[in-house]
């Protein structure tokens, strides 16, 4: 049964009316299942997962087919282009956006982009465009950010570079729509000025929220900063872990300030605005009842915000990392690597980069291409790549592009950077990056996928490992072996004949021994740009030992021809070892398959789930009779932990991702819950099934609910169902996007009743931030909502 989201339908209608492009109307009517042939390597996310990264994944999860998704979900098709002129007439906006499309389409005859709507607020310097299809987003962004002269950004009439970003990535800001890149100077790092020179947006690493990575790698510098041909280690840290210069205490302080100002205060503001709207409607005679502002909204600290709970690990905490295959820019004169056998045709190009860069060179900026000089035959050798993997930024001569894997710290045009300098990235993932960069890619006759030409094969690699079980899964995303959607007709970039051989070589390299410990150096806390670095071993003590035993236990390949990232249900090919990895949390063991979400900070997840357990325990007077609704349950972690802790006796979990639900069912039996009437898991979009589930709950069964949606928050139908059903007295909302979608959903759960959101509202009774992502601006939030008492409610409605 398809459930229409009325809000979505309305938006769509409005968009149709606002078509600003001649081509738009036609595009809108087209079957969006057809990918227009536009492809691009969606770069892997860096900081991804905040259950970030994964925005893209999560959105793509929501609907069963592309056409359904395209029909309902606009956010994943929206891009904001910054730095256009502030004052423009609407016909100039149309002219400008048409000129982008014409430029792109005329130089990419195989791949066409279409804009269905373009909107520019009168006094702002940005335009929000809605593309006809999600798969056009990455090429469009790449085009704006690097389709100009010499691979630089397009410029406005005054020569200022434009800057494009997905709307669903702009979640660090108060209001996505109102964000103006020119005003970025006030950073969220508490007003303390950063000591570095580079400013970058911090984007979640992985989608995983369901994590899907959503191109978090598309980090760009402020438009007023000239893009450099290469970045120093510190600049890479600035781009990907922007809080790294702060002590951990300072990081937590900056996060709590954000949570108070941009989450708690914003929720109160939004709810008050709803009251004002009702009042205005009453004054105009459109409504009879005037509802008095709920008392809690006028209290001093209306939302009880707790200090953030720190992450048990503050460095190398990620259990999942996603690298992009691309090219490393290596200055010609520094290039010492000898082309090895078989490297012919692997896409090494010479780039003439004339960008001016800083004239001073620090030790951190000294680069000698250590990866290239490491003897590929000595598997036990350790590399010291953290200090030396990018070219000297003072050198503005010719650059060679060397196939490499890593993070796109400054967009596709800036090349990939090794993960070694990043303190949130675990050692084992650097070890795999080294294998790929020193042993695999230099000898591979198959090139990385190029998001501009849509040719090439290797796209990204996702690695997930457990320090507790020592297992490690590697998923290699690749375009078809014949060379990607832009493959030449003459077949000269068809790699099918060597693909299987390369696959076998990769398996051999990844599995020949346990992952070796890579020596890395991190700056001391409160790094001020001096050369004071502390070797990782002394930072981590015994933990370093723990990593010694990790080995690759599963390998998957995933072929994907589309433009963005595949959804979690996209088929994978299992080519080595186990079909899942196992992770332990508390007393439970969980299996995780390639398409399933799992929190990226294992120790942090334990803390997070214990908080949820406590919030539920507070209200369950008869736990064994109590049913837990676990909405967006993933592999069943929260629900099964609650069963295991005895705070509830029954569980119904819902998740859109089939692989996650398959895991959840097995996880239930693995942890001793074989009786399906006690632990039931359903694969479905929550908005389709939740109203039915709630209707079927026996009248006398006490119910608590926990929701843990991806970054795009809850569907309106889910919010409505949770609000309307007064059996639920407590709702625990776990959010990886507390300053974005949590505020929106909270306002709908707690605002005065309307036709669309009827029922006695909730009120937020506790907000507990949990720092799952040290060094980045992201923060998880557990917000507890309790149903307002009937008595209190009626006072305001009399
Ligand atoms: C942040 S994860 C949380 C998973 C789980 N609670 C955990 O802690 O591991 C969000 C989950 O929401 C799921 N999801 C996304 N959209 C959904 C939808 N419309 N209905 C149900 N689940 C959805 C994703 O598949 C993902 O597993």
TrEMBL record:
Gene3D superfamilies: Vaccinia Virus protein VP39
Active-site annotation: 736 (nucleophile)
Biased composition, class Low complexity, residue ranges: 206-218
Skewed-composition ranges (Polar residues): 53-62
Amino-acid positions noted as binding S-adenosyl-L-methionine in the UniProt annotation, renumbered to this chain: 599, 655, 708
Acidic residues bias (residue ranges): 172-188
Domain Methyltransferase: 628-691
Region spans: Disordered: 1-69, 172-236, 377-398, 524-544
InterPro entries, per database record: Methyltranfer_dom (IPR025714), SAM-dependent_MTases_sf (IPR029063), TRM2_met (IPR045850), U5_MeTrfase_fam (IPR010280)
Biological process, per Gene Ontology: methylation
GO MF: methyltransferase activity
Record keywords: Methyltransferase, S-adenosyl-L-methionine, Transferase
Family membership: Belongs to the class I-like SAM-binding methyltransferase superfamily. RNA M5U methyltransferase family.
PANTHER family the UniProt entry points to: TRNA (URACIL-5-)-METHYLTRANSFERASE, TRNA (URACIL-5-)-METHYLTRANSFERASE HOMOLOG A
Name assigned to this protein: Methyltransferase domain-containing protein
Native source species: Discostella pseudostelligera
């Amino acid at each position: 049964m398809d459930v229409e989201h009325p809000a979505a339908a309305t938006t769509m209608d409005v968009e149709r009316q606002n078509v600003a492009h001649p081509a738009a109307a036609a595009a809108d009517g087209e079957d969006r299942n057809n990918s227009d042939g536009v492809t691009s390597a969606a770069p892997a996310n860096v900081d991804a997962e905040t259950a970030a990264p994964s925005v893209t994944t999560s959105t793509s999860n929501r609907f069963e087919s592309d056409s359904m998704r395209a029909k309902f979900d606009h956010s994943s098709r929206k891009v904001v282009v910054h730095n256009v002129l502030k004052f423009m007439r609407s016909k100039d906006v149309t002219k400008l956006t048409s000129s982008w499309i014409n430029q792109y389409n005329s130089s990419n005859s195989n791949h066409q982009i279409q804009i269905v709507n373009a909107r520019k607020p009168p006094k702002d310097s940005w335009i929000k465009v809605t593309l006809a299809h999600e798969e056009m987003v990455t090429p469009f962004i790449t085009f704006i950010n690097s389709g100009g002269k010499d691979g630089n950004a397009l410029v406005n009439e005054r020569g200022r570079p434009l800057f494009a970003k997905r709307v669903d990535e702009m979640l660090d800001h108060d209001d996505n729509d109102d964000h103006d890149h020119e005003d970025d100077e006030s950073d969220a790092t508490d007003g303390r000025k950063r000591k570095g020179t580079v400013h970058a947006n911090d984007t979640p690493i992985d989608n995983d929220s369901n994590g899907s990575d959503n191109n978090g790698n598309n980090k760009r510098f402020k438009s007023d900063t000239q893009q450099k041909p290469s970045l120093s280690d510190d600049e890479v840290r600035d781009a990907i872990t922007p809080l790294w210069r702060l002590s951990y205490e300072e990081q937590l302080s900056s996060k709590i300030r954000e949570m108070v100002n941009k989450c708690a205060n914003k929720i109160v503001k939004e709810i008050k605005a709803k009251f004002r709207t009702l009042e205005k409607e009453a004054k105009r005679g459109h409504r009879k009842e005037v509802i008095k502002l709920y008392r809690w909204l006028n209290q001093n600290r209306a939302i009880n915000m707790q200090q953030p709970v720190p992450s048990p690990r503050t460095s190398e905490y990620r259990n999942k990392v996603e690298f992009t295959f691309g090219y490393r820019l290596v200055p010609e004169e520094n290039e010492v690597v000898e082309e090895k056998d078989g490297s012919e045709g692997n896409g090494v190009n010479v780039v003439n980069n004339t960008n001016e860069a800083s004239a001073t060179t620090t030790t951190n900026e000294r680069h000698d291409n250590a990866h290239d000089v490491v003897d590929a035959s000595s598997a036990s050798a350790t590399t010291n790549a953290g200090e030396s993997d990018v070219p000297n930024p003072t050198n503005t001569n010719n650059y060679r592009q060397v196939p490499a894997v890593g993070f796109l710290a400054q967009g596709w045009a800036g090349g990939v950077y090794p993960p070694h300098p990043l303190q949130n990235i675990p050692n084992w993932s650097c070890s795999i990056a080294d294998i790929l960069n020193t042993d695999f890619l230099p000898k591979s006759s198959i090139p990385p996928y190029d998001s501009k030409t849509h040719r090439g094969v290797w796209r990204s690699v996702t690695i997930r490992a457990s320090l507790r079980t020592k297992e490690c899964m590697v998923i290699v995303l690749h375009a078809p072996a014949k060379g990607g959607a832009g493959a030449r007709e003459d077949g000269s970039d068809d790699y099918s004949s060597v693909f299987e051989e390369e696959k076998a070589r990769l398996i051999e390299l990844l599995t020949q021994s346990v992952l070796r410990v890579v020596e890395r150096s991190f700056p001391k806390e409160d790094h001020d740009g001096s050369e004071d670095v502390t070797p990782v071993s002394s930072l981590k003590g015994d933990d370093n030992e723990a990593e010694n035993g990790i080995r690759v236990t599963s390998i998957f390949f995933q072929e994907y021809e589309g433009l963005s990232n595949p959804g979690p249900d996209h088929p994978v090919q299992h080519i080595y070892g186990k079909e899942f990895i196992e992770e332990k949390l508390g007393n439970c063991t969980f299996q995780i398959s390639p398409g399933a979400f799992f929190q990226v900070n294992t120790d942090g997840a334990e803390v997070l789930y214990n908080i949820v357990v406590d919030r539920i325990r507070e209200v369950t007077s008869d736990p064994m009779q109590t049913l837990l609704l676990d909405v967006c349950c993933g592999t069943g972690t929260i629900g099964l932990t609650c069963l295991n802790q005895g705070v509830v006796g029954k569980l119904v979990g819902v998740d859109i991702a089939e692989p996650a639900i398959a895991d959840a069912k097995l996880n239930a039996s693995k942890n001793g819950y074989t009786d399906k009437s006690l632990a039931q898991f359903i694969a479905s979009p929550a908005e389709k099934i939740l109203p039915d589930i709630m209707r079927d709950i026996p009248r006398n069964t006490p119910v608590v609910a926990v929701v843990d949606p991806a970054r795009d928050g809850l569907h309106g139908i889910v919010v409505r169902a949770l609000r309307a059903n007064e059996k639920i007295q407590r709702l625990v909302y776990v959010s990886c996007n507390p300053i974005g979608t949590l505020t929106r959903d909270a306002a709908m759960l707690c605002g005065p009743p309307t036709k669309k959101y009827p029922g006695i509202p909730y009120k937020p009774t506790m907000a507990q931030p949990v720092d799952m992502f040290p060094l980045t601006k992201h923060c998880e939030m557990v917000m507890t909502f309790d149903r307002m008492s009937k008595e209190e409610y009626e006072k305001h409605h009399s």
